[in-house]
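Thread: Modeling a multi-component assembly for a lab meeting

Hi all, long-time lurker, first post. My supervisor asked me to bring a structural picture of a complex we are working on to next week's group meeting, and I have zero experience with this. I have the sequence lines for every component (901 residues in total). Could someone generate the structure of the whole assembly? Inputs are pasted exactly as I received them:
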Amino acid sequence: MKNIQYLFACLFVFLFASCKDDENNVIPTVDHFLVAEGKTASGKKVKLWSAEKDLLVAYNKLYVSVQNADSSYTGDPAVTLTPVMDMGTMKHSSPVEQPVYDASTKLYPAGVVFSMPSGDMGSWTVTAKVDQEEVTFPVNIKSSPANTKYTTTFVGSDGTAYTITLVDPSGPKIGLNDLVVLVNRRESMMSFPAVQGLTLEVTPEMPSMGHGSPNNVNPAFTSGGRYAGKVNFTMTGDWRLHFKVLKGSTVLAQDVALDLLF
Amino acid sequence: MQDSLQLDELVVKGIHGEKKTNILTPTDKVLESTPGITMIRRGNFAMEPAIRSLNNGQITMTIDGMRIFGACTDRMDPVSSYIEPNNLSGIAITENAGENQVGGSVGGGINFKLKEPEFSNERTLSGSAGSGYETNGNAMQGFAGVTITGQNTALQIDGIYRRSGNYKAGGGDAVFFSQYEKWNGHLAGKVRVGKNAFIKGDYLQDEGYNIGYPALPMDVAFAKAKIGSVAFVSENPETNTRWETKLYYNFIDHAMDDTKRPKSMVPIHMDMPGTSRTAGFYSTFSQTLRKKHHIQARVDGFNNELSATMTMYPDGASEMFMYTLPDLGRSGIGAAVNDHISLTALASVRLSGRMEWLHDYQFSQAGKEQLSGIYPGDLSRDRLVGNLGAGMDYQLSERNKLSLDVSRGARAATLQEGYGFYIFNRTDGFDYMGNPDLKQETSVNLNLTYQYKSSRFSASINPFVYFFRNYIVGALLPDYSVMTIGAYGVKRYENIGSARLYGASLNLVWSPVSDLKLSSNNTYTEAKDRAGNWLPLIAPFRSVNTINYQLKAFSFSAEAVLNGAQKKTSPEIYGEQTTPSSAIFNLNAARTFTFEEKGLLRLFAGVDNLFDNKYFQHLDVQKVPRPGRNVVVRATFSF
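Re: Modeling a multi-component assembly
Sure thing. I ran the full set together rather than chain by chain. Output:
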């Protein structure tokens, strides 16, 4: 008798599971973490996913999925993300690499830089705008681990406030790593457009030892606000990346530092 | 030329005297008193031998023909530190690269031959035991060994323990971190499997603990070696042939330690462990034809894997980890032939050669990734290394003999020279990077030996010269920042176009009456690179003069060891300073008691550095002073 129960249970699971496998209803097969979900006024289900369990004061790889009420997908509506820090007396946003639809995963990968942690100072939301309809998700941003600094703001010699954010290596290892940084400028409290055409020079250093490493490649502009180069970590531990930032021959900043730890 | 230093036969030969025969003297000190050998000293333990100042990868060191490589990145554990005189039947030193059968070299090699029990018609039991004490460092040693022989089986077990506290330099100042403790055990067995064939097995374990290296920034928590082999030997006295095939494996586990040093000497606490694993085989065949033609051939193969890491623990920051030897391997196969032909009663020629193919590689992904930051692409390398030698001996007259040797030697860079990662060299104070694209270092060596021998007097004079190509030295890497706190900069191993080493030795033995013997061993070497800079770690003039007197069961000896000043240094290029001359006097006396039934008791007392001079020698890293006066007493008993 017991065996028959098991058989039914298995059959049920099988039917249920196969139903989910229906071509048009693929749930984003993601080893991503669901951050929040909501519905637009017209009933579209909008979900925000993250590549990492926690959202940090750093560059965060986020994904948006948009489904109809019946969980089917309808083309690729335009989606934009706006992070907002509400500090009571004031609000500000932060740099974003806006989502671009990826047909193979039916997801919108995006990059969002959170510039400070959630807490007593204020709270973060991310607003997704889907075809003119908005869904706002409250998000909790944690500080990056002690002795790390993945994003920083500096005021250049041209008086403009810039942010520089580490995109890669997201999983640093000993040896030569791909280095990607994102540079944005603060046009207003709510607008942080990408900056093209700067010259960056990178110098790694281990602050607890005082030594650097050889064979680094200065990041060169690629697209958006991204600059790609190479960084050589000769050992694990605390590493500080010193950036010299130039615009043409004008030095915007002599030393802007990001800190890693692995 | 094959010099053979039969430790058990030294007294019989009467060349070097009592001191070297004593089984309680550590291997490095036995080597140090061998003419032509100089020692690089980093502490009171594990001095590293050099043949005519050529060292490290320039020479080979093998145990009973087995390849074995130290695990320490700072050369704290030369192979000679893992064997003890009680394990050995002899030490064979070859300065002729072509005649070095075991591996490619530019300066020859040292082979430590393990003791082997012999078969006998009747079952016999013999043994020996002894103990010694030294006042300087409050050092003691104890050893014991037993040999059982029989018609079809033979077994031998020996072991030694030695320890020392910090020694005192001349004048009485203690040299801190010069202590050590070690034990060593060796088991050898043979079983006859045919009329002329037997199988033998060897297992040697050597473990050192709490070893101080006053010349280096770190000490050693432990240095352990496990060395094993099985061999099949077939000997045919009718055809004068011997054929031995051996399989072997050895494992070295080494850990540096800075926890005993005062905090002020340790800017960052770190762990630096290293391992070395070598598996291999060899097969040697030798035959003597009509007593005039002696031929020896060998084929061999080995695989060595080295791994060393460094983990640093800074105050208030995260620990830092890296490989200093990023999982490196070397495989080799080789073949060698030595042929000694007597042309006439007066003249003979020696022809020899070795070819080997070596493959260097990295055996882990993490190791490869780490070096990707320094060198692009696949870093495995292949090399074909060839060594050739030719020699001639000619008996000019009854008392005069002339020998001439020409050899061409070649060696691959060591894995440390090829792939090392910021390895600190205390000799010049630089961090060193490996260079996988090093070319082979080669040498052409000319050796002339003239010997005169009469019943009371013998003399030999031996000028030699080495012409090197692609000599491997460190060259400054200006854009690299140092890893080791306090290092002066970073160097990378590079080939320099050429270098030259030349010198001569003069050995005199005079025995005016039969119980009295005076001997003098003198060696001089100097070496320059292409640009005329003096090369580092070259020993200056050295003269060891001994008087031995035998009075029935008593023997007395007095020894003067003179080292000339070394002013031929190039501090700005190789970071080496000059060294003043030194003169040290040693005295000793021994008495042997022979017992009627069976047995021999030998009592020994000696004073090293009689006048308590404070001194160091040129190859002493960091110029740490050597031991002051040391009174040694020893008793050994054998039956």
